[in-house]
Write a structure and sequence with these properties.
This protein has 160 residues and is of the alpha+beta class. It has four helices and five strands; from the N terminus they run H-E-E-E-H-E-E-H-H. About 4% of the residues have low confidence. The chain binds zinc ion. Zinc ion binds next to loops.
């Protein structure tokens, strides 16, 4: 985990994030997860290398969750659903592996998993996979382009 303690070697701070970003709002960005647990699985993060929700000022926390709700609306519109999960882990003890504040958003559709609650262990595994898969994203370049393009298009025409 020490590898990720600074902005210089944080996977979320690296420039390649720009390629998967589909929405930004007041210092926060929404990006497509390169190793999604379900279609549309995305992350909302502060652009700055902030480790913890606890470190945000009251106005920053307001903007972070506003950005998260806006990104969620875009995802719901793009995936034609009103169901979603959010998850946020703080510190390794809680399952956080990349020490840059990130909220998982997973749009859900009926019967996408055998049991609706099955998403959570998948997200926990996924947080580890972000590290494992740095050099080998599970979505191909063209798959990423399609989903990011679709979400950017939705963002442009969705009132959030
Ligand atoms: Zn970072």
């Amino acid at each position: 985990l020490e590898r990720y303690l600074t902005a210089e070697n944080c996977p979320f701070c690296k420039s390649r994030i720009g390629k998967v970003t589909f929405f930004s709002f007041e210092g926060n960005i929404a990006l497509v997860n390169i190793a999604p647990v379900l279609p549309g699985h995305s992350l909302v993060i502060p652009e700055k290398h902030i480790k913890s929700l606890i470190d945000l000022t009251e106005s920053e926390i307001n903007l972070f969750f506003l950005a998260a709700r806006k990104a969620t609306k875009i995802l719901l519109s793009a995936f034609g659903t009103d169901a979603f999960d959010w998850s946020l882990q703080e510190k390794p003890e809680a399952g956080q592996s990349v020490e840059h504040l990130h909220l998982h958003i997973v749009p859900r559709i009926r019967k996408d998993l055998k049991d609706p609650g099955d998403w959570y262990p998948l997200v926990q595994q996924n947080d580890k996979m972000i590290i494992d898969s740095l050099g080998r994203p599970r979505l191909s370049k063209s798959e990423l382009e399609v989903i990011v393009g679709k979400l950017r298009e939705t963002a442009a025409k969705t009132e959030v």
